[in-house]
Design a protein that fits this description.
Elements lengths: L1 H15 L2 H30 L10 E8 L2 E4 L3 H10 L3 E15 L5 E8 L3 H5 L5 E2 L14 E4 L1 H8 L9 E4 L2 E8 L12 E4 L8 H4 L17 E6 L5 H18 L1 H4 L3 E6 H6 L3 H32 L1 H9 L4 H37 L14 H26 L4 H4 L10 H36 L10 E6 L9 H16 L4 E7 L10 E6 L12 E7 L3 H4 L4 E4 L13 E5 H7 L9 E4 L8 E8 L14 E5 L10 E7 L7 H11 L5 E6 H44 L1 H9 L4 H30 L15 H26 L4 H5 L3
Length: about 800
């Protein structure tokens, strides 16, 4: 222990005497270790950390499957049979995501929530922090409407009042009794802030009951809209549960062929369901920062090799007076580890800032970000990485430095030069740095090309000067299609009167909003689709000016007009993809199609127009068949609407006026999501932009570290070869010859590093395929351009010390030895 303390003291004195070297090494390590700690903090919280539920490994999600859709919501009747007939689950609970108008006790507000079965919280194993969760007994009291709220809503809306339990709040103009408040962080499913009890035996939301006239539950197996979570019995595996539910599904397919033909089942662990989509992204970023750390390590190793060359006389003297080689290696490793530990502590500080920035800039679809933190466990991770890093980059310099040529090193007044072995080691490290940097730069280049091409795609609409908003009138206050149509007509009339508004329209779901409505249909004169064919289309309800607001062209036929109302012929407009797919060699205008049940006369609609394709779900997904109806002819089921407003000025400047006008129509109806359409477009690009920026930043950092390494190696090589250069000049070598000598050495290393990096990139970038758009993982243009950029930057790094070498004075150089 005493000798170790002496080694540490000596290392501190040695590093303190060379502040320039120490600062550069510490900054390099701080950036590499800090980036790794930050990304690992996120990976740990999102991917590795168990879900915050009781025995989370037993929780699963259950889905229906049909055709290529492996994650289809479940029909209530099928859920009931799964729950009653299975042998692998302790319990199953159902949820249906929705929104609620919260009124009273302040301004009206639209709240994300869910309708759930009474056993949801018990299945998850999460108790309330205040009051209680739903219980099985609650199902027996049909006269009580109950709600449980989130901790965030309790604090924000009700000022953490403990007297809230037992009080009533108004949701969609209906009184609900608050029975509990959930603990902080609990928001299952998704971003739910309140949970209402669905008493119907299949947990159907009250907002959906209105879809079925006189509560006609013959639709129990036709409507697929609830999500199922289950808890496995102890000892039951995921595959056993899958086999169990699949057997029930096959039985239901035979029992109910009209509704269940082709329906299968899929059982997925809850952890996979929540984090599965984001796992590749985080692992990609983790791999990138590991490369950055490797580059940082090679950089510091090169610095230590350079320092070791200047300490040959010191090492030789210590060996000559009896010090063992093992003792000297331990001294060198003590210095490198101490350097790495201090760099790690600085990196921990960097990681605190980096994690905060990471979370702030993250797209909204990354789950569990509220659980990300840099705590003592992450400090332990940082210290462990620091120790490992210090040993790794310290070993090579330690072994090299402790093998000096004693006779040469001990000559009085002789400057020890680097040996061929040490020079090869330093060259190898430079090649490794450049290869890793090349690999990261290629990956970043592919993502940049993908982002640019995605940004240039024709989305089928023009978001410029368009303001959007959402409003959901109460189904109690506006209970029928006529009253809702009158409400939305009043909304449009008021909005058109606002100065700066050119036109206004409504739509069921905005493009790129993440919401959609799929409905089945039948083409007149053709046999109906088989139940297992799953022929559906994206279904939209709009007003007459919708296509004009978004500047989507009518390719054939006409737009909707004010004459298309409840008393006129029922009409429909389809998009170009639907026309090509279902009427490939004929004109669809004048043809009829039925939405939903073709047995009803009100389901048949005449096609009056074909509109250009819009990319509704996402920019990178191809357009799907889509049909549009006018709101006056279809408001039976969908009271919530989005508003689009074409403005002649900055759309954000009209947000206040829009809120004021809509509030004036009905002060009790919340107006929410008021924002320029460009924000939706930006949000749609956010995930790809996020990956591009982060990987691009890591690649830039890697490039800087690599170029610093090249510059350092060439500079040290010049200083080591000063005598040689002086002799060459004295013998007649020109400045051009000297420049060619130094540049040849540096660019030779750069060329090898670039070639090795390109070869590695060909193998590694295939893991990027899911992040790319309209560019291959081996795009030759990107590979070539990145190689040229890295070569040019390496040339600049080599040129500066090479130019300095051309100015060596032969007389001074010959006295240098």
């Amino acid at each position: 222990m005493e000798s170790l303390i002496k080694d540490i003291r000596y290392a501190i004195r040695h590093l303190a005497r060379r502040p320039g070297f120490t600062v550069i090494a510490l900054l390099t390590l701080a950036l590499g270790i800090g980036a790794n700690t930050a990304i690992f903090s996120v990976v740990n919280a999102v991917v590795l950390k168990p879900l915050p539920y009781k025995q989370p490994d037993q929780l699963v999600m259950l889905w229906e499957t049909i055709a290529a859709n492996n994650h289809r919501s479940v029909a209530p009747g099928n859920f009931a049979d799964w729950r009653e007939q299975n042998h692998s689950m302790e319990a199953m609970a159902a949820t249906f995501n929705g929104n609620f108008n919260l009124t009273g006790d302040g301004f009206p507000e639209r709240i994300d929530g869910a309708t759930v079965t009474s056993n949801l919280m018990s299945v998850l194993g999460v108790p309330a922090q205040l009051g209680r969760v739903f219980q099985a007994d609650d199902d027996l009291h049909q006269d009580r409407r109950l709600v449980v709220i989130s901790d965030g809503l309790w604090k924000r809306r009700f000022a953490s009042g403990r007297d809230l339990i037992g009080r009533t709040i108004k949701l969609d103009d209906t009184s609900y009794e608050v029975v509990g408040v959930m603990p902080p962080g609990f928001q299952y499913p998704n971003q739910s802030n309140l949970w209402v009890l669905g008493r119907d035996r299949n947990a159907v939301s009250q907002t959906l009951i209105s879809q079925f006239p006189q509560n006609d539950w013959s639709h129990e197996r036709d409507a697929h809209f609830i999500n199922i979570i289950g808890r496995l019995k102890p000892g039951v595996t995921l595959s056993q549960a899958q086999s169990d539910i699949a057997a029930i599904s096959r039985q239901l397919e035979q029992q109910f062929p009209q509704t269940n033909a082709g329906l299968g089942s899929n059982v997925v662990s809850l952890h996979t369901q929540i984090v599965g989509n984001v796992r590749p992204l985080l692992l990609l970023l983790l791999g990138a920062v590991i490369f950055v750390l490797l580059i940082a390590c090679t950089n510091v190793a090169n610095l230590l090799l350079a320092r070791a060359s200047q300490r040959q006389r010191e090492v030789a003297l210590r060996l000559a007076v009896g010090a063992s080689r093992a003792r000297l290696i331990r001294q060198f490793l003590t210095e490198s580890t101490l350097l790495s530990l201090v760099g790690g502590l600085l990196g921990f500080v960097v990681s605190i800032w980096a994690v905060a920035l990471f979370v702030k800039l993250s797209p909204s679809d990354i789950p569990r970000l509220n659980e990300v933190s840099v705590d003592w466990r992450m400090l332990g991770f940082t210290l462990a990485v620091s120790v490992i890093t210090g040993i790794c980059f310290g070993l090579l310099p330690a072994f090299q430095a402790t093998r000096p040529d004693l006779n040469r090193a001990l000559k009085e007044g002789t400057r020890a030069s680097q040996g061929r072995s040490r020079r090869r080691s330093r060259d190898f490290l430079v090649i490794a740095e450049l290869a890793l940097a090349q690999l990261l730069l290629v990956a970043a280049g592919l993502l940049i090309v993908s982002y640019v091409r995605l940004n240039q795609i024709d989305a089928g609409f023009n978001p410029d000067h368009v303001l959007t908003a959402k409003i959901a009138p109460s189904t109690r206050k506006y209970p029928d299609p006529k009253s809702r149509a009158e409400f939305f007509t009043a909304v449009l009339d008021h909005l058109r009167q606002i100065p700066g508004v050119q036109s206004a329209a409504i739509v069921l779901n905005l493009p790129l909003s993440g919401s959609s409505m799929n409905r089945g249909f039948t083409v007149e004169g053709r046999p109906p689709a088989r139940p297992d064919e799953n022929i559906t289309m994206d279904y939209q309800v709009v007003s007459s000016d919708y296509f004009a607001v978004l500047q989507t062209p009518i390719l054939r036929g006409r737009r909707f007009s004010e004459a298309d109302n409840q008393n006129s012929q029922r009409v429909i407009i389809i998009n170009q993809t639907m026309a090509r797919r279902y009427w490939p060699n004929e004109d669809p205008l004048g043809k009829r199609m039925a939405i939903g049940e073709s047995s009803k006369d009100t389901s048949w609609r005449t096609i009056i127009g074909v509109v250009g394709d819009m990319r509704h779900a996402s920019l990178n997904d191809a357009p799907v068949p889509c049909a549009f109806t006018i709101y006056r002819q279809d408001l039976e089921s969908w009271p919530r609407m989005a508003i689009t407003i074409k403005t002649t000025t900055d759309p954000a400047s009209l947000s206040g006026a829009v809120r004021k006008e809509l509030t004036a129509i009905d002060p009790a109806q919340p107006v929410y999501a008021v924002e320029p359409f460009q924000n939706l477009l930006s949000s749609a690009l956010a995930p790809r932009r996020y990956v591009m920026v982060l990987l691009g930043s890591f690649s830039l950092l890697a490039l800087i570290l690599a170029i610093v390494g090249v510059y350092g190696v060439i500079s040290f090589s010049v200083s080591e070869r000063t005598n040689e250069i002086g002799i060459r000049v004295a013998l007649g070598a020109s400045r051009r010859d000297v420049l060619r000598l130094i540049l040849g050495h540096g660019m030779g290393l750069a060329l090898i590093g670039i070639v090795v990096g390109l070869a590695g990139a060909f193998g590694v970038t295939r893991f990027l395929r899911s992040f790319l758009f309209e560019v291959t993982a081996t795009d030759p243009g990107t590979f070539t351009l990145v190689a040229l950029i890295l070569g040019a930057v390496a040339l600049c790094a080599c040129y500066i010390p090479a130019r300095r070498a051309t100015k060596v004075d032969p007389l001074v150089a010959l006295k240098y030895e």
